[in-house]
Automatic annotation (TrEMBL):
It comes from Mycolicibacterium alvei. It comes from the Bacteria. Pfam families: DUF5642 (PF18702). This is DUF5642 domain-containing protein. Residues 83-262 form the DUF5642 domain. InterPro entries: DUF5642 (IPR041313).
Length: 263
């Protein structure tokens, strides 16, 4: 019967052979000098073969793979076709009491935070990750007691970095007009065949008379196969007496939006 060869079985055979060969040398009858030499040569040969076998079987172990830390694309065998018109299906996941209208075709996540077209980023390289549209935005916005919800899908623009980890924009600032905001990277939900990203933005705006108003935005995005960029942004008023929609709602809505777009 054939027994599969494993590192453990090789090691066992080495030990067993080393025990048997010395036993044959302890003969009660005196042997000739060349018989002892042959036996010593056989033992040395077995030791060499066992050492090589154990070195091959036990020494070539695969190196452990590094633990992933980025929110890169999640692999999947099947990639569905994206239909931007399906973004409207996600409106049914809104809480009661929200009024829905079509989104501004020029809308981007940064504009939804309250910044005009002349906004600036610091570091400037982070602006490339925030401005990702090329075609008019398709989607909707909804206002209600918990804030304003935006959901949209656009085509990625030329020159947009394919690697979302470069540059590293863990925290950066955005400014424009009378508003300034601090953008902080947050964990985004994993989605099959998509690169996801999340930010938490605190915005301060100075109005007439020097009065400051504050707002907060939780934004989650997904880059899909085919050059589509999906975003969900929930803008809330920290001073509102009503409970605000939380980041988990925005993240979950992004997952549902991608699922709807793929059909």
């Amino acid at each position: 019967m054939l027994v599969p060869t494993t590192p453990a079985s090789i090691k066992f055979r080495c030990i067993a052979t080393l025990v048997v060969f010395p036993a044959t040398t302890l003969d009660s009858k005196p042997g000739l000098w060349y018989q002892h030499a042959v036996r010593l040569f056989a033992v040395a040969t077995v030791l060499l073969v066992c050492t090589l076998a154990c070195g091959v079987a036990c020494g070539l172990q695969p190196a452990p793979e590094p633990t992933p830390t980025s929110s890169g694309p999640q692999a999947s065998r099947n990639v569905a076709t994206v239909n931007p018109a399906r973004i409207d299906r996600v409106r049914q996941d809104l809480p009661p009491g929200y009024e829905v209208v079509a989104i501004d075709p020029r809308a981007t996540p940064v504009s939804l935070w309250g910044f005009g077209p002349d906004w600036r980023a610091d570091p400037a390289a982070c602006a490339a990750l925030a401005a990702r549209e090329v075609e008019p935005t398709r989607g909707w916005s909804a206002s209600g007691p918990g804030g304003i919800v935006y959901a949209g899908v656009v085509k990625l623009g030329p020159g947009v970095p394919a690697d979302r980890s470069e540059p590293r924009c863990e925290q950066w600032s955005v400014s424009g007009g009378h508003s300034v905001g601090t953008v902080t990277a947050v964990m985004a939900p994993p989605i099959d065949d998509a690169v996801t990203d999340g930010t938490s933005t605190a915005v301060t705006t100075v109005v007439e008379g020097g009065t400051e108003t504050r707002s907060h935005a939780d934004t989650f995005t997904a880059d899909l196969v085919g050059g589509y960029h999906v975003f969900v942004s929930v803008v809330t008023d920290p001073g509102s007496p009503n409970p605000a929609l939380d980041p988990a709602f925005a993240a979950d809505l992004l997952v549902k939006s991608v699922s709807a777009l793929r059909g």
